[in-house]
Design a protein that fits this description.
mainly alpha
Amino acid sequence: MEKTDERAGVARRMTAVSAGPPVRRGRPSGARWWPSGVRWWRLGAVLSAAAGAAAVLGPAGTRWLEHPAVEAWRTVCLAITVQALPFLLLGTALSGAINAFVPAGLFTRVLPKRPALAVPVAGVAGAVLPGCECASVPVASGLIRRGVPPAAAFAFLLSAPAVNPVVLTATAVAFPGNPAMVAARLLASLTTAAVMGWLWLWLGKEEWLRPLLRHRHTGHRPGHSRWTEFRLGFRHDFLHAGGFLVLGAMAAATFNVAVPGAVLDTFSGSPWLSVPFLAGLAVLLAVCSEADAFVAASLTGFSPTARLAFLVVGPMVDLKLIALQAGTFGRAFAWRFCTATTVVAVVASVLTGGALL
């Protein structure tokens, strides 16, 4: 009997081992509370680095944080981030709503069938998005995923932060009694957006885009909750783009603090250097498109054409926008597209400014 009971006990233990661990009835298998792609070793490395930095800087005190340059850098970085964050929220919410609630074929039915005609139509449609450049990037990526031709989506991306009513009204207030500046900004921005869309049709390659954006009509899947898809899409886009926004704000704040104001006086007196200088300054300062008109109006030592270049280039190419585009569309796309956009915007500003200003 003892041997029989012993064999029965062994059999029960073998059955329990072969059956595996008990199945939990809570969270589905494979589900994680942290975003996809995050690994525990990476999280541990970040926490270890933060703890090491605190251990090194703690004994040394925090006097270096009170240095005027550090305080100025912190203020500018925080100001850019806080200024852009509401519009980033708006853009990611619109992108999630487009992906979850808008029928997949709506945009392809509204836009002209020929991509060459869809580009200027999408550029003019940018007036309906009352936000800055941070909102246009996630919306443009959502449009591409829904089947809109990339050329039309990129035209919308460039025009939306520059030709919407909020930005044009701010420009009119910043330049009182000068409606030509508002008209010049509208015309030069629309021209740049259309030309860049057509350039993408001519020279663009879809392999420059991230693989996710090469798959069309990803929107709502039958049998799934639309609100769940909206929530998951909004969370993914916001967390993904938010990190690149902070990196761009840090780079812009570094330039604001490191470059002395005397440099502005050196370039303002040259009619040939003032335009490219203010165009480059717009890229580095990364001012929101709804506030850049007041910055341009304060640059009284520069010509109207140079200030127009500041207003046209800034909403289309700046440090935070470059970072957002690289994170959303891919680095291969970002450096080509941003370089070409800067050149086209400067040329459009010079031609438009020479004719209207």
